[in-house]
Design goal:
single chain; about 280 residues; alpha/beta; seven-stranded mixed β-sheet; 7 helices
Length: about 280
């Protein structure tokens, strides 16, 4: 079982493979604008320990500069191409914390190595290594006033001892299986932070369909049950509480060969990676 997945809440996940720690879309805030963290304690300091950080798109709940400021100097940031120009706060925190940035287009890859120590480069030091490949996502990830065509939303495939797909935010699209390719683990969004999901998202049913098309050995549902708009606790509360369990139910129906690992906040799993 070469991969360990830890869910810190929302879309924030640590993928540990081949001695390398990759952190996705870190959000370590109790409150973000009109959203508050309703479930799960804030991630501990160890959650910010990573060799590289993957940013899927520019929405504030996925690219959160104050959370990036908790990273150790030298932690590499991988972001969609154009993100540095589009988000001045990203440039500022990267300069202040000495966080090197790699911008990726869909299809591009970057090699990541375990950092040798505090401040060491994530692509130069250490013994373990893996490859991160950016893949397209069907999601409007703009940070106004920049549109989605200038800064595309991405997913990522982390390839070490296994292949782990982190979807970021995406809707279903026909090319998804071909763009992602074979994977052993799929980390899939199954909900949102409000009572209604707009286009470009996966709900529990669509995420189960994605799991069926991707055919990983294991799937981990994320992006639900963490943040909710202030003052809306009584509005469609099932959309906050139920997506993980509903994904499990739907996946058992349409993708029975996929093992679903439904985690609590801060929990880890070594998912099944072989048939």
């Amino acid at each position: 079982m070469p991969v360990e997945i830890t869910w810190w809440g929302h879309a924030t996940v640590t993928v540990e493979d081949s001695g390398v720690r990759v952190l996705t879309d870190p959000l370590f805030a109790a409150r973000l604008a009109h959203l508050r963290r309703r479930r799960g304690a804030l991630p501990p300091p160890e959650a910010a320990r990573a060799d590289a950080v993957l940013i899927s798109h520019l929405h504030a709940d996925h690219l959160h500069p104050a959370s990036l400021a908790r990273l150790a100097p030298g932690t590499r940031l991988m972001v969609p191409y154009g993100a540095t120009a589009a988000v001045p706060a990203l440039r500022r925190v990267a300069a202040a914390r000495a966080l090197p940035i790699t911008e990726l287009r869909p299809g591009e890859e970057c090699r990541v190595r375990a950092r040798g120590g505090e401040g060491a480069s994530a692509v130069e030091g250490g013994t373990g290594s893996l490859t991160v490949r950016a893949v397209p996502a069907a999601h409007d990830g703009r940070r106004i006033p920049y549109g989605p065509h200038r800064v595309p939303a991405l997913g990522y495939v982390v390839r070490g001892a296994a292949r782990t797909y982190f979807a970021g935010d995406t809707g279903l699209f026909p090319e998804l299986p071909d763009e992602v390719g074979p994977c052993e683990v799929a980390v899939l969004p199954v909900g949102g932070w409000g009572p209604f999901l707009g286009p470009g998202h996966l709900d529990a049913r669509r995420a189960a369909v994605a799991a069926a098309r991707l055919a990983p050995c294991s799937a981990v549902p994320v992006h639900y049950g963490t943040y909710w708009p202030i003052g809306m606790d009584a509005v469609r509360p099932h959309e906050f509480h139920a997506p993980g369990q509903e994904f499990e139910r739907q996946a058992a129906r349409v993708a029975p060969e996929v093992t679903v690992h439904r985690l609590g906040h801060g929990e880890s799993v070594r998912p099944r990676t072989a048939r």
